[in-house]
Write a structure and sequence with these properties.
The structure holds 2 protein chains of 2 kinds. Chain A is mainly α. Chain A has 15 helices and 6 strands. Chain A is elongated. The model of chain A has no long low-confidence stretch (mean pLDDT 82). Classes of the chains: A mainly alpha, B alpha/beta. At the A-B interface, helix 1 and helix 9 of A face helix 2 and helix 3 of B.
Chain lengths: 433, 250
């Protein structure tokens, strides 16, 4: 124990006097969090706030269907409905030309008299229904000519995504159904009043019998919308912890290259003891890193008008997740530091492998924004396991149970790395481990 | 030499992975207590490999080694308690002070507290370094580093001390201090095994030497007796050149 404490003290002093290492470990990740949060804030807002799509709307109908459609599109919040460009009323031709030219993504042309036609058709349908009950004189319909379906034309830019196009078409159809349903109700009321003068139309406002509730299924059933900070703080904290591979392997290989390790291995102390001392110091470094990252998220980022980090109430889960991530990062560092022959090898392989694991693990681009194939690939990255755990705490308000699987995966990764390190060392130096 | 050897090497061989030629070929050697034993030879002769194996840093490919009655294969922990090693490179932490380095290495030998600090200051005093105890190693000259390097290997007063070219590349003053100190601790009971390229130094310091070449021992004996056995050579260096050849080595 005494030797172990002495080795820890030595590692601590070496780290303390390594200015470049301290910058890599503590300052750079904080700068990364601030820069990436600032950079992503604009993009993130664009995704989160769903900017309005400009849509040309030509209402040649001027009656209830056209009016309701325009009202509905405006109130949806997705579209900026434009009916005149450069003080000139948009026509069917100019709308088509504007979309063709690429000036607008969507244009809708509601033909003249579409409401009138619909109304006539509805009246015929209602009258036919009532005549079946002997409540209507079919001869009265002689002067009403049922019409074929009118056409509302929708122009789409070819680059528009199919899903978005379908959503627009569905919305238009929905407005149409609503208008038509309203007309049927009103028409029934009118005809009933004619047949039964005593009949007073009930003041019925038709309401949809099926409603839809949108819920983000987190563990406290409260809606939490992810912000750049909720993503960036855990992402870069994990990245920083794994980037500890650079100073850790540097320290291991420097010790080897300068001959200190050889000297130590001739002394009554084991290699594993020395590694454990390194792990202990760098483990605390990881904890301090995490604390600084969270501190940045709560206190520094708001200074840049970026939303404050919300860490939730599960401090124990957060601590355990940090410990598990730190262990995984250290295990990987020990493995690379033991296998690499030179500092250059370790630095190059270590840095590149962490960048790759970070990229596929969702540090830069959140996994849910990745293509389907990459979402599966992401699952092999320990950084992704870390992200999953931190997301469960920060975004889904999850507790201990929710981080169990990612945390266990990270601890297993640590144990696996240490085991491989031990076996490799045993093969390389069978007498002295 | 009737007493039991403190180091017994039997049929020692070593082949590095990927190497065509073995680094050591069937070496057999006994070293006795209180000897200052020199391993001499050109580059690539196998001196450092031999010392590294004796310290437990490399596993031999074949052969048996006993050190102070302990078998290297299964009693390395006990061996580590009785040996001290001064490597060829300055194996110190440059960003730590001399005192921090020596306290750490002393701790690894189980030494601690005031006893260790007093011991360190005493040794630093012997080597003229007491004023530099709290200076970082990175600020030391080559000779000063060599002296601290030496102190780190013998803080625990080892029974057997291995030195790999301890005087390479240092000034004459540092060399004299180091060699005098080695003779002093040898007289107090430390067996010294030492490698060097300096024949004159070895001739004056060592009680016996082995001249190695291409992984084998080509001659072993007291330096003066070896020269006496070959009257055609006036000193150990001439004999050495005769035995190992004048060809340049990698």
């Amino acid at each position: 124990m005494f030797k172990f404490i002495s080795a820890v003290k030595k590692e601590y002093l070496l780290l303390l006097r390594d200015k470049a290492g301290i910058i890599i470990l503590f300052i750079m990740p904080m700068i990364l969090i601030i820069i990436f949060s600032l950079l992503q804030e604009v993009t993130w807002n664009a995704i989160a706030q769903e900017p309005k799509v400009e849509m040309l709307f030509v209402n040649n109908d001027g009656d209830s269907l056209g009016i309701n459609m325009e009202k509905g599109l405006r109130s949806s919040g997705f579209f900026d409905v434009i009916d005149s460009v450069n003080h000139a009323k948009v026509t069917a031709e100019s709308a088509r030309a504007a979309v063709k030219k690429g000036d607008f993504l969507i244009a809708i042309v509601v033909p003249k008299g579409v409401t009138k036609s619909m109304r006539a058709n509805v009246r015929v349908a209602v009258a036919k229904t009532l005549s079946g009950f002997g409540m209507f004189n079919p001869n009265l319909l002689n002067n009403i000519v049922p019409k074929g379906a009118d056409t509302v034309t929708l122009y789409f830019d070819p680059t528009i995504r199919k899903a978005f196009k379908n959503a627009v078409v569905s919305s238009i159809k929905e407005f149409n159904y609503r208008s038509e349903t309203g007309m049927i109700f009103r028409s029934f009321n009118i005809e009933m009043s004619k047949q039964f003068p005593a009949y007073k139309p009930a003041d019925i406002e038709y309401k949809e019998s099926l409603q839809f509730k949108e819920v983000f299924p987190n563990y406290v059933e409260r809606e939490e919308i992810p912000t750049t900070v909720q993503h960036n703080v855990p992402a870069w904290a994990i990245f920083a912890m794994f980037f500890i591979i650079i100073p850790l392997t540097g320290s291991m290989i420097k010790e080897r290259e300068e001959g200190s390790l050889a000297r130590l291995m001739s002394m009554p102390v084991s290699y594993i003891h020395l590694l454990l001392a390194k792990v202990t110091v760098y483990f605390f470094v990881c904890l301090v890193q995490s604390f600084l990252m969270i501190f940045s998220g709560i206190f520094i980022l708001p200074l840049f008008h970026i939303p404050m980090l919300v860490i939730g109430n599960h401090i124990i889960a957060l601590t355990l997740m940090t410990i598990a991530t730190a262990l995984a990062a250290l295990g990987y560092g020990l493995l690379v530091g033991t296998i690499a022959n030179t500092h250059q090898q370790a630095a190059a392989f270590g840095a590149v492998s962490i960048i790759i694991l970070a990229a596929i693990g969702g540090v830069w681009v959140p996994v849910y924004l990745m293509p389907n194939v990459m979402r599966h690939v992401a699952m092999i990255s320990p950084l992704n396991w870390g992200m999953t755990g931190f997301y469960n705490i920060f975004l889904r308000q999850g507790g201990l149970i929710t981080i169990m699987i990612p945390a266990l995966k990270l601890v297993a990764f640590f144990l696996g790395s240490v085991l491989i390190t031990y076996i490799y060392r045993k093969i390389k130096s069978p007498l002295n481990i | 030499m009737a007493e039991r050897p403190i180091i017994e090497i039997k049929n020692l061989s070593k082949r590095y992975k990927g190497s065509d030629e073995p680094a050591l070929k069937d070496i057999t050697l006994d070293i006795y207590p209180l000897e200052i034993f020199g391993l001499l030879g050109p580059n690539g002769a196998g001196k450092t490999t031999t010392i590294s194996i004796l310290c437990g840093l490399f596993a031999p490919t074949g052969g048996e080694i006993m050190i102070d009655g302990f078998n290297l294969h299964n009693e390395l922990d006990q061996i580590k308690q009785v040996i001290g090693v001064v490597p060829q490179d300055v194996a110190l932490y440059p960003t730590l002070t001399a005192l921090e380095n020596l306290v750490f290495f002393g701790n690894m030998y189980g030494l601690k507290g005031k006893y260790l600090k007093d011991l360190i200051m005493d040794r630093m005093n012997v080597f003229g370094l007491e004023r530099f105890a709290k200076k970082k190693i990175s600020s030391f000259s080559g000779g000063m580093k060599r002296r601290v390097n030496l102190i780190a290997g013998l803080l625990h007063d080892p029974k057997i001390l291995f030195l790999d070219e301890p005087t390479a590349g240092i000034d004459v003053q540092s060399k004299v201090v180091i060699l005098e100190f080695l003779q002093e601790i040898n007289q107090k009971g430390t067996t010294i095994i030492y490698t060097s390229h300096y024949m004159e130094e070895a001739e004056n310091l060592c009680s016996r030497v082995s001249i190695m070449d291409r992984g084998t021992i080509v001659s072993t004996g007291n330096p003066k007796e070896l020269v006496a056995d070959h009257p055609e050579f006036k000193n150990l260096e001439n004999l050495y050149l005769y035995l190992t050849g004048k060809g340049l080595r990698d």
